[in-house]
């Protein structure tokens, strides 16, 4: 469980197919995320919950399923790219964002990302089949960053980013045409499941 409040941006060291067997290997250089880290701990990498399989003095390693690569924006990652990192929520810790599971619902496509005054406007295309989960003034996690939806369209959403968010996350590296990981608000998905006639 996470909050969508990024603790640091790490740097992608390597990402490639496992040398033997199916799956992928991911290595990320980090500092804060390595503190008190144990093998088996969960870390959200660009919003995707991954299990640490090995940790060194300056980096952490993860194993990814083919499904994780297919259903996220990881396939676009290149060595040197910054990624958003958040360690799992600890009991008694601050809950500054919203409830984020680290289970990516969809990959969005950035349509517009531009400065408007002191802030930045970000519009992301959302699969139309999942746009019902986007609610104006509701919560959305974009690459693991907890944000408030400013506009909700039939196949897109828009958020505003303050300078602080751009400074402490990797979202500032994104451009129109890039993919981002999306996790919709958990509460909305549960409500839909429980409503009569709407169970999936």
- Major sheet: size, sense and barrel closure? 7 strands, antiparallel
The CATH class designation of the largest domain is Mainly Beta
| CATH architecture assignment name of the largest domain | Beta Barrel
Tertiary shape: globular
How much is the average pLDDT? 93
Strand order of the largest sheet: 10-9-13-7-8-12-11
CATH topology of the largest domain: Elongation Factor Tu (Ef-tu), domain 3
Reading the helices and strands in chain order gives EEEEEHEEEEEEEHEH
DSSP helical segment count: 3
State the total count of DSSP E strands: 13
**Structural class based on helices, strands and sheet pairing:** mainly beta
Helix content: 10-25%
Rounded radius of gyration (Å)? 17 Å
Give the low-confidence spans.
none
The N- and C-terminal alpha carbons lie at a distance of 23 Å
Percent of residues in β-strands:
35-45%
Number of domains: 2
Spell out the blueprint of helices and strands:
Blueprint: E1 8-17, E2 24-29, E3 42-45, E4 48-55, E5 59-64, H1 66-70, E6 82-87, E7 106-116, E8 119-125, E9 139-142, E10 145-148, E11 151-152, E12 156-161, H2 163-168, E13 179-184, H3 186-194
Antiparallel strand pairs: 1-2, 1-6, 2-5, 3-4, 3-6, 4-5, 7-8, 7-13, 8-12, 9-10, 9-13, 11-12
């Amino acid at each position: 469980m996470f909050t969508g409040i990024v603790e640091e941006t790490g740097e992608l060291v390597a990402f490639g197919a496992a040398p033997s067997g199916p799956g992928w290997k991911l290595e990320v250089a980090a500092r804060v995320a390595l503190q008190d880290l144990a093998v088996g701990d969960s870390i959200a990498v660009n919003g995707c919950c991954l299990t640490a399989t090995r940790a060194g003095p300056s980096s952490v390693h993860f194993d990814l399923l083919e499904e994780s690569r297919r259903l996220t924006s990881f396939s676009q990652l290149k060595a040197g790219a910054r990624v958003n990192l958040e360690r799992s929520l600890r009991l008694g810790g601050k809950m500054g964002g919203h409830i984020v599971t680290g289970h990516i619902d969809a990959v969005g496509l950035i349509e517009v990302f531009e400065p408007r005054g002191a802030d930045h406007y970000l519009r992301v295309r959302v699969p139309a089949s999942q746009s019902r989960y986007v609610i104006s003034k509701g919560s959305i996690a974009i690459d693991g960053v907890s944000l408030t939806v400013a506009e909700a369209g039939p196949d897109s959403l828009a958020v505003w980013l303050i300078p602080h968010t751009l400074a402490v996350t990797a979202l500032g590296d994104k451009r129109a045409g890039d993919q981002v990981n999306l996790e919709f608000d958990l509460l909305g998905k549960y409500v839909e499941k429980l409503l009569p006639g709407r169970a999936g």
